[in-house]
Amino acid sequence: MHGGVKKEDLAEENLGAIEKGITNLKRHFNNMQEVYRIPTVVSINQFPTDTEEELELVQSLCEQAGIQAIRSTGWRDGGKGVIDLAESVVNLTEKQESTVTFTYNDDESLEEKIKAVVTNVYRGSGIQLSKKARTKLREYEQLGYKKLPVCIAKTQYSFSDDINLGSTPEAFTIQVRDVKLNSGSRFIVVATGAILTMPGLPKKPAAENIDVDEKGLISGLF
Length: 222
What we know:
The protein is of the alpha/beta class. It has 6 helices and 8 strands; from the N terminus they run αβαβαααβαβββββ. It has 2 domains: 7-95, no CATH class; 110-192, Formyltetrahydrofolate synthetase, domain 3 (Roll), CATH 3.10.410. The chain has a 4-stranded mixed β-sheet with strand order 3-5-6-4. The protein has a two-stranded parallel ribbon with strand order 1-2. β1, α2 (52-64) and β2 form a beta-alpha-beta unit.
């Protein structure tokens, strides 16, 4: 999909789209290595419609970029399907020491924390706060929530908040529409672009098919 293929066409082999979309994976991997400094292994979640040519291409492109990529079929084979992946993770942790770094410090302002994620992780140039968001961030800090981390809600189809900019744009501005304090779980949700955080259900949720009869037997779960 990061290579421009529509969801309904994903079952068809498309090597060109993989070569184009691999840039998204590379950026995520680079973030793990260069921003967070965490030893990383890529898991190739192998689906029934993935062709051998596609799988080999993903592994080849990863190898060319110095990325270790292991196929995984845990969804189908359970634990047996992730043995190679698990062993690779164990070997990596034994050979490389993790020196985890964070994108921002707890003492930075909430606005500075959002900017840090956008510029350091997403490769954007900055943020634009709505009047509503700016006012609420100021209120949260006055109430003593300045040290909380931020959780940015945005589209998964782009490093930006706009899918029209493509998968891996640079030097863009993130539009912060609103923010929400989750005081119990202790983080600030940052709503960007046109993203909706709730409801997270499809037009016809599975719950509509679930029922319980007079004997207490449940139907419609699967």
